[in-house]
Amino acid sequence: YGSNPGDLLAYLGPAIGGGCYEVGEDVVAAWREQLGETGQALQPHGDRWAFDLAVANRTLLERAGMVPERID
Predict the structure, then answer these.
(1) pTM score, two decimals?
(2) C-alpha–C-alpha distance, residues 28 and 57, integer Å
(3) C-alpha to C-alpha distance for 45 and 7, rounded to whole angstroms
(4) In 3-state terms, what secondary structure has residue 22?
């Protein structure tokens, strides 16, 4: 719609956190392909990874140009 990402507000609802969402290498590979790194959303968890969906969504919004202080 031609919006400037810096002018927008975003409100994130409840989401699965890293403490209860284990993922495999397929999700890690997809996330790395998207960001080029694992970032804060993915943390090692034994032989798998823990994925924090709220952190992932925040990261994607910030990379799209949203101001971090306008994401709640």
Answers:
(1) 0.84
(2) 15
(3) 37
(4) strand
* Alpha carbons 14 and 33: distance in angstroms, whole number: 25
CB atoms within 10 A of CB 61: 18
Two tokens at 12?
């994130």
C-alpha to C-alpha distance for 11 and 70, rounded to whole angstroms: 8
> For the chain, how are helix, strand and coil distributed in percent, rounded to 5?
40, 15, 45
Name the pLDDT band for 20 (thresholds 50, 70, 90): confident
Residues in the chain: 72
- DSSP letter (8 states) at residue 10: B
